[in-house]
Specification:
With 463 residues, the chain is mainly α. It contains 24 helices and no strands.
């Protein structure tokens, strides 16, 4: 006799046709679709971290469910979102990258528990997403939906850079797009450039360019004689970017990198020995903790507005140990811009009696010029008149001849022929051969010579 409280004992083991697995949760497609749509509608740069985390959890659950329909639905939602709002492509690509990382980590964790665990290829989020994107691009190009093809091409470029897609995954698509471009297809050409402009600006540009075999493909298109001017111009520009890739730096400048990583040795928080101790001025203290990025912003403001009195007042109000940083920022900004008017403004600023007085501290003037002087030969590759601009600013700073020789010798180049090139430019300015071509420079050179009490003709001994 048995009852609910006294169950019958079974001697045999109960078997199930479909054994439950802990990595196979039940996911409802309708609920998943609504949640993913809500997250994609809320994604912004400020909410990216939170949104990407929730999205990654949903992707992990969808992949663990083993249901290909659920995963395909998720991938088509992502593709549709990129087509509808191309401005969110970068953010969506970061969400996808986070989701891929989470799925790979989840897979490795389950393998530790169950070594035979494998994610079914049909339910793989990465595989389904790759297929959905590539099919979407080909369909959009075939149906003439140019805007959709451009958006998805940009998305493919972002995924290539982030490592979600490999070069082999898109090699066939890239080759076919180059073939259509050679047949004068503007749509394929623009879509191709949208995709590859992300690649050539990435930190992995060289490896991606080699992996996609871009140079032979680009050169093959340029050999066609029937290309339109528009396509030829775009492919030639792409050829230059592939030949000389310029990866986008995560930092806005070398100065910012040095600030963040603590590579600078120019932070001196103590006063000079000659400074008289006194009460700390809060406004003055705030200026001392300025970063190099802030000095660059100040330099851009002074150069764009030509605010000479403001720049003079700013450097006078600074501590003596920090004044060279503003001068360095102004010299770097004027040199990188390649505008002779900016160099003349910096020279005029440095020739002011009040500015020269506060920069008399030993080493401050040369210290402001040293970084740009050292890399002047490399700068001249991008700014052809870099030597001329540097000569203008050095003349305005009022260096003595032996100081100029010492500064010019710091240019980092084999055999240092660049030193003679810089000194020739300075000699030409001081001798007056170029003064007539630069309005206002004659007064600067004259003031520099009178202030140093050294005739310009005496500098001939350097040659």
């Amino acid at each position: 006799m048995s009852s609910p409280t006294t169950p019958i004992a079974h001697t045999g083991r109960i078997t199930f046709v479909h054994a439950w697995r802990p990595w196979s949760p039940i996911v409802h497609p309708v609920s998943l679709r609504q949640t993913v749509c809500g997250l994609l509608n809320k994604v912004t740069s400020t909410m990216l971290e939170h949104t990407a985390g929730r999205f990654a959890n949903l992707v992990v659950r969808a992949e663990r469910s083993g249901d290909p329909v659920v995963v395909e639905t998720l991938c088509h939602l992502i593709v549709s979102r990129c087509v509808e709002d191309p401005q969110l492509i970068t953010l969506v690509a970061k969400m996808v990258e986070r989701a891929i990382d989470e799925t790979e980590g989840e897979d490795l964790r389950w393998r530790d528990v169950y070594p035979l665990h494998r994610v079914a290829l049909a339910a793989s989020f990465q595989s389904n997403l790759k297929r959905a994107i590539l099919d979407g691009i080909q369909l959009a190009l075939a149906q003439g939906r140019a805007s959709d093809a451009f958006a998805l091409s940009s998305f493919v470029g972002e995924l290539l850079v982030s490592g979600v897609l490999r070069s082999d995954d898109v090699q066939e698509l890239v080759t076919s797009m180059f073939s259509e471009t050679a047949q004068n297809s503007d749509t394929h050409c623009v879509a191709l450039c949208r995709m590859l402009r992300r690649v050539v600006a990435s930190t992995e540009a060289s490896s991606l360019i080699d992996g996609l075999s871009l140079m032979p493909l680009v050169e093959g298109v340029l050999e066609e004689d029937t290309l339109s001017f528009k396509i030829r111009y775009m492919i030639m520009d792409l050829h230059d970017q592939c030949l000389y890739p310029q990866p986008r730096d995560v930092f806005s400048s070398d100065v910012e990198r040095s600030d963040i990583y603590g590579l600078r040795d120019d932070v001196e928080l103590d006063d000079d020995i000659g400074d008289v101790p006194g009460p700390v001025n809060p406004a003055h203290a705030r200026k001392d903790i300025k970063t190099s990025v802030q000095y660059l912003k100040d330099a851009h403001a002074f150069l764009s507005t030509r605010n000479l009195p403001g720049a003079e007042a700013a450097i006078i109000d600074m501590r003596s140990t920090q004044r060279y940083r503003l001068v360095y920022a102004m010299v770097s900004t004027a040199l990188s811009g390649g505008d002779e008017a900016d160099a003349n403004f910096v020279a005029t600023f440095l020739s002011q009696p009040a500015v020269r007085t506060v920069l008399r501290t030993e080493g401050n003037r040369a210290r402001a010029f040293e970084p740009d002087i050292a890399m002047l030969e490399d700068t001249a590759l991008d700014v052809p008149n870099a030597y001329h601009l540097m000569a203008i600013m050095l003349c305005g700073a009022g260096f003595l001849p032996h100081e100029l020789e010492d500064i010019a010798s710091r240019i980092v180049v084999k055999e240092n022929k660049a030193r003679d090139r810089l000194l020739e430019n300075i000699f030409a300015l001081r001798s007056g051969t170029a003064a007539d071509e630069m309005p206002g420079l004659g007064a600067i050179v004259e003031e520099a010579s009178s202030d140093d009490e050294t005739p310009s003709s005496d500098y001939a001994y350097a040659y």
